[in-house]
Amino acid sequence: MARALDLARRGPVHGPNPRVGCVLLAAPGAAAGAPRTAPEGPGGGGSRTGESGPVPGARVLGEGWHRGAGTPHAEVAALADARARGLDVRGATAVVTLEPCDHTGRTGPCSVALLEAGVARVVVAVPDPNPAAAGGAARLRAAGVEVVLGVEEAAGRALLGPWLVAVERGRPHVTLKLAATLDGRVAAADGSSRWITSPEARAHAHALRGEVDALVVGTGTALADDPALTARGADGALAPHQPLRVVVGARDLPAGGRLAGPGGDVLHLRTRDPREALAALHAREARRVLVEGGPTLAAAFLRAGVVDEVHAYVAPVLLGAGRSAVGDLGIGTIGDALRLRTREVRPLGPDVLVVADVEEEER
Ligand SMILES: NC(=O)c1ccc[n+]([C@@H]2O[C@H](COP(=O)([O-])OP(=O)(O)OC[C@H]3O[C@@H](n4cnc5c(N)ncnc54)[C@H](OP(=O)(O)O)[C@@H]3O)[C@@H](O)[C@H]2O)c1
């Protein structure tokens, strides 16, 4: 399973589909794995630095991982790998990080592919939480395949990360990003806000932009800052993956701003309801969304209980006046404060990034 998890990590972190890995193993002493055509040696595929290598003591017939929507699922990729090596998988064990799907989306059901290949045993880390795709284990069991669920489940869930949250909540996973001074300001009294944080912090934030499906700001920020909302490298070049650029709010956006420049598609959602905005993004297959403010929109998302984590870049800068990072949350007394659970604290040049989860009961 450790190897299957490593394979899964090779998949893209954005997009509508989860990262999944699969290893096909010959049962010890079983006939599975006999060469089909050529007496090609066994192997675990290439291993990369930091990954667990081929499975010791087990004969690996094939390996696969999911490369993103529209490409074969991990199980199908592993079966194809075994075929390409000329190895027979009948009687084999499939070790897979997510329960094989049982539905026909852009590709056919993996449960059927495993059955047709004659796999005898399936070991799974995470049962599929997606009602549209679940049922793979039941179909396999009904056909006489032994299925073991929940092996290394915690590691499997951690790897699925925001995708799992999106499927379980029926809306995209939301990260709220703030770039604030030590005294919690995100703009000076005259509205200027470029730049509060250091190049190191901004580079980190751009890397995160390259991992999400959509980047969201309110009309206030779009009008005040004329942001490009692109993911860029240190040299200013556009990153390979560009998130959908989303502006939320009723006001019109001026034609010809930086949003008209190169980058992801631009979507103006003329609503003030965060849940409605997220439903529209979910329908467009966005699973991970980064809300970048401003303070009014940040407060609206927090009040609606749809923020899963906060990334706060805090710079050793004082302004004393200007907009607070988050607008009015309707909290009147300290006992009602929204308290988050810190997951990570990372120095970035002179700044600090605090990553904190919004606990379930606070939502
Ligand atoms: N340092 C940072 O991290 C950072 C990040 C972003 C922005 N900023 C700064 O923040 C300032 C802009 O802040 P802002 O608060 O005016 O802008 P904002 O939060 O981006 O946008 C506010 C607007 O969004 C619309 N809206 C959408 N949903 C809403 C809801 N549920 N409730 C209320 N309004 C909703 C409203 O406009 P409609 O009338 O159009 O509906 C509202 O006026 C700028 O100075 C910018 O530089 C700083």
Question: If you had to describe this structure to a student in words, what would you say it looks like?
Answer:
- The protein contains nine helices and 13 strands.
- It is α/β, with parallel strands linked by helices.
- The protein has an eight-stranded mixed beta sheet, sandwiched between helices.
- Helix 7 links the parallel strand 7 and strand 8 (244-248).
- The radius of gyration is 24 Å and the shape is elongated.
- The site of NADP nicotinamide-adenine-dinucleotide phosphate has 27 residues, from strand 6, strand 7, helix 7 and helix 9.
Would you kindly provide a brief summary of this structure?
The chain has 363 residues and is of the alpha/beta class.
Helix and strand pattern: HEEHEHEHEHEHEHEEHEHEEE
Helices, by number, come to 9
| Main pleated-sheet profile | 8 strands, mixed
Radius of gyration: 24 Å
CATH-defined fold name of the largest domain: Dihydrofolate Reductase, subunit A
Q: Name the CATH class of the largest domain.
A: Alpha Beta
Tell me roughly what share of residues is in helical segments. 10-25%
- Give unreliable regions as ranges: 37-49
Task: Provide the CATH architecture of the largest domain.
Answer: 3-Layer(aba) Sandwich
Terminal Cα separation, in Å?
33 Å
Query: Which ligands, by name, code or SMILES, are bound?
Result: NADP nicotinamide-adenine-dinucleotide phosphate
Overall average residue pLDDT? 91
> CATH H level of the largest domain: which superfamily?
Dihydrofolate Reductase, subunit A
Number of strands: 13
Oligomeric state, counting identical vs distinct chains: single chain
Principal-axis shape equals: elongated
Strand order of the largest sheet: 9-8-7-10-6-11-13-12
